[in-house]
Amino acid sequence: DIQMTQSPSSLSASVGDRVTITCRASQSISSYLNWYQQKPGKAPKLLIYAASSLQSGVPSRFSGSGSGTDFTLTISSLQPEDFATYYCQQSYSTFMYTFGQGTKLEIK
Amino acid sequence: QVQLVQSGAEVKKPGASVKVSCKASGYTFTSYGISWVRQAPGQGLEWMGWISAYNGNTNYAQKLQGRVTMTTDTSTSTAYMELRSLRSDDTAVYYCARVGTRAQRWVFDYWGQGTLVTVSS
Questions:
Q1: Can you tell me the distance from the alpha carbon of B89 to that of A80, in angstroms, rounded to the nearest whole number?
Q2: Quick one: pLDDT band at residue B74, thresholds 50, 70, 90?
Q3: Is B4 within 8 Å of B24 (Cβ atoms)?
Q4: Chain B neighbors of A31, CB-CB under 8 A
């Protein structure tokens, strides 16, 4: 099975900061990588697919990059509503869609 | 608009079974798969499995093989997830999600609201 590892597990930042979250796959997954945002008590929300494509309606301050085994999610200027937990997910394995363990983004 | 509406919270005793439903609307049910994801209290997302609403094909996470069964009822556009031999560590919020495509990549584009399953004696 493909394992997904995110770092850091948690991150403290201030409004206006630029933050980067990393996701590493245990084998090459090309660009079959999605990012989700989850707020407390809510279902996850799709942010980015195919490693770097922004889901419709997602603000342009979110961006993704990477290919193969190493990927990043960047938020260019943190807004108050961005404090949440972020998950990467691989969709390379047919009908097996594992998640990373999550990165909790907290207000400093 | 696409909606996935799940059944209500459940409390079960260890060893029992639970069946959670996920009723879809706003799209052609048989054109998409459904995945189930769970989240234990304070923990991350765990993918449980996938079912094709077109033909009922399934794929389950290895750790749940033998305990989980996913089914669909196309007449009511409803997906079901049954988990048997419940243990305390099965206590979690269970989500269904539609498996759509973006740029020929699978994505979970719509999610249910979640169903809390509590396993306690």
A1: 33
A2: very high
A3: yes
A4: 105
